[in-house]
Write a structure and sequence with these properties.
It is a single chain. This protein folds into two domains: about 5-40, no CATH class; about 55-305, Rossmann fold (3-Layer(aba) Sandwich). With about 300 residues, it is of the alpha/beta class. Strand 1 (about 55-60), helix 3 (about 65-75) and strand 2 (about 80-85) form a beta-alpha-beta unit. It has helices at about 5-10, 30-40, 65-75, 90-100, 110-125, 155-180, 205-225, 245-250, 255-260, 275-285; strands at about 55-60, 80-85, 100-105, 130-135, 185-190, 230-240, 295-300. It is built from ten helices and seven strands. The protein binds NADP nicotinamide-adenine-dinucleotide phosphate.
Length: about 300
């Protein structure tokens, strides 16, 4: 019996029946020891780090999931990463975490120059711009978002501006640069499971849900229009993740009890920023070169679970 998982665990590479001479051609006759002997003679190049040589911009990369992803991008071989945020102290601390191949830019992502300047910084510092990860956004609760009958006029405007306008602006800046430079490019937008999988008791901010749902439609539409130019756009949609944005929820024992059944994976816990690193790295890498217009939920099971309490 061929144990394929152990084969893949030992050596990475592609195998065809013709690669195995004589009796080994019949896969059903293979023994593990025989296969191991054959594999030892196959010259397999190690897989390159997935983001080797890429220059990336993370709008909202100074704390939380954006910072964790930026660190993962560098570990995955990225040549350079620009991270942005409003708070200068967070920016300095992010640079300390990320090291010499990172640059930081402070400013407000709801202003149109912000992403333009971040991309210009990537080009100046690292000589390229291959991908954008837009993370900046957040709850509008303190600005007047909530259940619809309580939502304020200012809350509508501010929540959409923070979560949707800022993302449209950064995506426009990225697409303009890709087209101008005649290069392919990848965009990854931060969505949320709340964009299509509501949870009324604990997470009732309806303008935020509208913004996150809008990100799905916007991204798919952009993906469709620019696919022929090699520009890809996808959405990563987390559930509850322990970051500065999620302080209210993470400190509430009722919500944590709810999460135990709503995000049942890995013991039923709140997500960690690094839970999203693998998906973000993959979707910005060439391994995802044939993937566009997709939404990947990284949610501990949220969208397939009832949740109790
Ligand atoms: N945490 C969750 O449970 C969760 C779940 C699903 C989706 N999300 C999404 O994840 C994103 C938030 O990321 P996070 O949870 O990792 O929270 P976070 O730690 O607060 O990170 C947000 C990042 O964006 C920056 N940012 C926020 N508003 C900005 C603005 N107007 N201009 C420039 N930078 C800005 C923040 O820096 P400054 O604060 O210094 O500006 C920080 O770098 C949001 O898009 C949110 O909808 C979060």
């Amino acid at each position: 019996m061929v144990n394929l998982s152990s084969v893949h665990g030992q050596r990475a590479g592609r195998f065809r029946a013709e690669d195995f001479p004589g009796p080994f051609r019949n896969v059903s006759q293979l023994t593990q020891a025989g296969l191991n002997r054959e594999l030892a003679s196959v010259d397999v190049a190690p897989l390159p780090a997935p983001l080797t040589g890429k220059c990336l911009v993370v709008i909202g990369g100074t704390t939380g999931m954006g910072l964790s992803a930026a660190r993962a991008f560098l570990q995955a071989g990225a040549l350079g990463v620009v991270v942005t945020g409003r708070n200068p102290e967070s920016a300095v601390s992010a640079l300390q975490t990320l090291g010499a191949n990172a640059r930081a830019l402070t400013g407000d992502a709801t202003e149109c120059r912000h992403a333009i300047d971040a991309i210009a910084l990537a080009l100046e510092a690292f000589g390229g711009f291959d991908g954008l990860y837009h993370v900046a956004g957040g709850s509008g609760r303190k600005m007047g978002d909530g259940p619809l009958h309580e939502v304020t006029d200012d809350g509508i405007r501010a929540t959409l501006q923070l979560n949707l306008d800022s993302l449209i602006l950064s995506n426009r800046a990225a697409v303009q640069r890709f087209l101008e430079r005649k290069t392919p490019g990848a965009i990854l937008n931060m969505g949320s499971v709340l964009g299509w999988s509501p949870s009324p008791k604990h997470f009732s901010t309806h303008v935020y849900a509208a913004a996150k749902s809008g990100i799905l439609g916007f991204t798919r539409s952009v993906a469709s229009y620019y696919a022929a130019q090699g520009i890809r756009a996808n959405v990563l949609a987390p559930a509850l993740v322990e970051t500065p944005m999620a302080r209210r929820a993470a400190a509430n024992p009722d919500i944590l009890r709810f999460i135990h059944t709503k995000q049942p994976l890995d013991g039923g816990r709140i997500g960690r920023p690094e839970d999203c690193d693998g998906a973000a790295t993959f979707l910005l890498s060439d391994a995802a070169r044939f993937i566009t217009g997709q939404v990947l939920a990284v949610d501990g099971g949220w969208t397939v679970s009832d949740g109790q309490l």
